[in-house]
Amino acid sequence: MSGEPPPTVQQILATRTGEEMALGERYLNPQMGRILRTLGFDKVWSGGEGAHLIDADGERYLDLFGGYGVFAIGRNHPDVIEAIEQLTAARTGNLPQLGVTLLSGVLAEQLLARAPGSVAAMVPANTGTEAVEAAIKIARAATGRPRVLYAEHAFHGLTLGSLSLNGGVEFREGFGPLLPGCDPVGFGDLDALERELARGEVAAFVVEPIQGKGVNLPPHGYLAAAQRLCGEAGALFVCDEVQTGIGRTGRFLALEHWGLEPDMICLAKALSGGFVPIGALLVSRAAFDRVFDGMERAVRHGSTFGGNDLAAAVALATLRVLDREDLLAHAQRMGALLLELTTPLVERFEVVSDVRGLGLMWAIEFGPPAGAGARRLWETVERRQPGLFSQLVTVPLFHEHKIFCQVAGHRMNVIKALPALTIEEAEVRRFAAALEQTIAAAERYPGALARFGLRTGLRAARVGR
Ligand SMILES: Cc1ncc(COP(=O)(O)O)c(C=O)c1O
Which one, out of 13, 45, 283, 461, has a CA that is 20 to 30 A from the CA of 387? Predict the structure, then answer.
């Protein structure tokens, strides 16, 4: 192969389809290959449309993974494709670097118009973690303080700064030492937050309005009180809306549910319509001006591709689609329907301990059954392989019902759904019915749990965010 020019995209798709797993295992991530084979998720995905992924046989799978939540407006939305075509045809003067461009300025204008009045400027980025890194740096520089607080079970990304705010030991382990001065507080625990703020030197408290890992909703009044405590302590209040933003919860930003006015807001994921990497940090005027406070400090934070024309063009198209298709209202309706259809499962099944969600960010949690024998079996298996019961549900959902979803995090029996906001009512109903059927089967045969777990060794199969 060496020395040959790389083939075109068309040639690759025409001649090498079917080699995905082999290439992935050889060059990318062999352990991911093992997970996919173990679960039987080693599909060749040949297409995507709206709320669905399409396999090589043309079978459509309802995609509740949503690429970790990037496909809010659905896969391959024609408006976004058209925006990419328009952008490339325009041959813009992209990334002058010592210069400014129109599209990212208009994107900032549009995002800020949809955000609370507390933010007034945008720092462009390329990913969610980069937006969080920018928030950490700006908080420290703006306040002159070193400490950053975060919530237990938080997920803010996997680069070193955001990893320092990550509540999952499975992500942190082996990568230390992480950033000094980063301390966790319980999600929902205002006393702990107040105590940590009182210890002083806190630059910021960074929090997801709804935690992605496990889909944990904030207790009533928590976020507004946290914002107030931060304000009183002179610490910045930062909402990480990388997952909850761009319509996911039925509002453009989840913070609207609680009327929050943060000092910074992190955005990414769905903002690009799922096409290209994107990130953005919305920042208060005061914090921004304290960091970029002179000509010699104009470029003290940034990223080469931040604010590129392609990302801005797809983001603007995404915002247009959200408005034109009235997707926030649709997400509210579909989310309410999903909760209405699935909440009764808590009563119906001993193993369902909770169903929760907001808009189209939804989760179901499993717990041990009541009967002594079944409980013992559950506990034995779960001790060896925490979160295994969930796989007894996700695997048949995938193979028998063509519904693609996964656990919401390590060592948790929580299945999560982040469907396209365009999902149709019939598909919501189909998912709820398939879920009920699958849980009934999983609950009926507790022995299957043990056999399934011991056979497959699913300890490694944790791929949720
Ligand atoms: C709340 C939150 N913040 C940050 C990130 C990191 O985003 P990225 O993977 O684009 O770096 C994620 C990713 O799942 C997330 O859910």
Answer: 45
Which residue out of 126, 136, 155 has the highest number of ligand 1 atoms within 8 Å of its CB and is therefore the one to mutate?
A: 155
80 CA from centroid of ligand 1 (Å): 22
Q: How far is CA 88 from CA 136, 229, 313, 314, 319, in A?
A: 34, 47, 10, 12, 19
Whole-structure pTM value: 0.95
Q: Look at the chain and count its residues.
A: 465
Ligand 1 proximal residues by C-beta, below 6 Å: 68, 127-129, 132, 155-157, 208, 212, 240, 242-243, 268, 465
Instruction: Return the DSSP state at 211.
Output: B
Q: What tens digit of pLDDT does each residue of 138-150 get?
A: 999 999 999 999 9
| Cβ contact 99:302 at 8 Å | no
Distance 203 CA to ligand 1 centre (A): 21
On the question of pLDDT at 460 being above 50, the answer is: no
Ligand 1 center from residue 248 Cα (angstroms): 14
Instruction: Read off φ and ψ for residue 64, nearest 5 degrees.
Output: -95, -5
Q: If you ran DSSP here, which 8-state letter would residue 219 be given?
A: P
